[in-house]
Write a structure and sequence with these properties.
Layout: E1 2-3, E2 6-7, E3 15-21, H1 34-37, H2 39-48, E4 53-55, E5 63-65, E6 68-73, E7 78-83, H3 97-107, E8 121-128, E9 131-136, H4 155-158, E10 179-181, E11 189-194, E12 201-203, E13 207-213, H5 216-224, E14 230-231, E15 250-255, E16 259-265, H6 276-285, H7 288-295, E17 300-302, H8 325-334, E18 347-348, E19 353-354, E20 356-362, H9 366-380, E21 385-391, H10 393-400, E22 410-416, H11 422-425, H12 447-458, H13 462-479, E23 482-488, E24 490-495, E25 519-521, H14 523-528
Helix pairs in contact: 6-8, 7-9, 12-13
Amino acid sequence: MILGGWSVNLVAQINLHIGFTQEQFTNSLALNQDWNSKEMTRVLWPLVYSQLWILGPAPEYQALPGLAMKWETEDNRTWKFYLTPEASFSDGYPVTARDVVFSLELLSKQDLAWKTRDMNFESFEVIDDYTFKVTLMEAYSGSYPPFFRKPVLPRHIWENHQNSPADFPNSNLVGSGPYQLAEPATGEMIRLIARENRTGIEAKYDALIFLSFANSQLMVSALKQRIIDLLGHDGIDPLNATAFDSVEGIKNIITEGTELHWLSFNLAKKTSISNIDVRKAIMHSINRKEIIAQVFRGYAREISSFIYAELINFYPTSIKYNYDPNEAIRILDRADYIDTNNNGIRNDRKLNQDLSFSLLVLNNNESHIDMANLIKKQALKIGIQINLMKVAPFIYYSFLTNPVGGGFDIAINSQSHDPVSVNDFWNTMRSDEDLYNNFNSSHYINYAFDRILDKMLTTSSFLRQSKYLQLMQEILAEDLPYGLLVRQYKICPARDENGYNFVKAMGGISSGINIWSYVSENTDVIQENRVEGVGLSW
């Protein structure tokens, strides 16, 4: 069939229909910030553009071959990648090492989202068409190689647009991944079809149809009416977990989430919140089980670390802040925080202040507000007053990025990361004495922590890295700049008919780090390209 100059085979035995809200559906295929900010695009582009390697499914989350069948390093700073010679772009051009180097250099100059630690290069060397070497400015430590989630673009198309790549419409979406664009995209639908793919992953379905809906209610209705087979991102709110109980053929698939919720204590404020005894008492007053039951309807778990519990670097800290209001009262009594005027609120007689604090929350985040109301009620039982400070997103984030000038004492903070970028997340806790750090929401200053962080980020030893991470987590637990709360589960309703094989991973069955519901491991290609002495890691 020929559609507007597109010659493609649209005969498909198994089609999968995926729904996104209009807000998350992409209206542009250009290389702009949508590639890393809009969830639909985060799912779409790894299906069309191959990467050097791909994050494997749960529970191992291994680094699996993509365009690179193997990689090696001796010092975690100089890396050598071996590409499969079988890979080609959807327009027939072969994928070479020059395409990879071109793509990495181009992305490193684009949106900040691409500028991860591994994108700081010292030099590249193209050894031959299918082998290249890169030397980074510093060692890239951890259990993964560099260049996670970096698309390899066809140099013969993009080299004419490298000065302003975001202005290039990219309407043909030529890539080397397991799927290709079947017809020109619209603002309501994008159709991908499977293509022969000689890399480490292959298409699981004949066609993927991404559909846009004006809002989440219409999208959920479309799932009930069999118009779509799954929601492409986020799943459903815990309040709506029973919405599909009576709908035949649909089941809720529950996975670990990636979103962590915690308190950021503003240590720059000249209030009693800078006293660690007050922070300890607040944390002992918080009943996380009650938060999980009432706010998340049971679809969450308590956390004690910024590292996800299922990852190898997780470390259960020796310092715990369990729910214990009696201990909170003992701490405050020993620190001489007494209710001197019998109004139910303790006083800081040195500062001549009540233990009364503002709690910053997003005014459009119901979970934030519900958590804040519970924390307010729980803290009052130990004589601490919490006043909700509900603000619009712009004000909320401007306060978090400038705690020195921010008008808050405590903030409910939420963030997601993944098994690979979790190391970069620790940089948000680096000491900051400047007015604008853009990351450190507590204005936490600890230079000993910084030195350990630097060692963790650059060591070539995985065992040493794990030890540094343990030390960092213990320091944070002792200093308490952040009060860890809960990790939310994902509730993903999907059709379990027609032999669909939805794959569970942290963040749901469909996300920017989990495309395994749409692809499978191409084991034949991996075995064909193995070379003795060159492994998948170091």
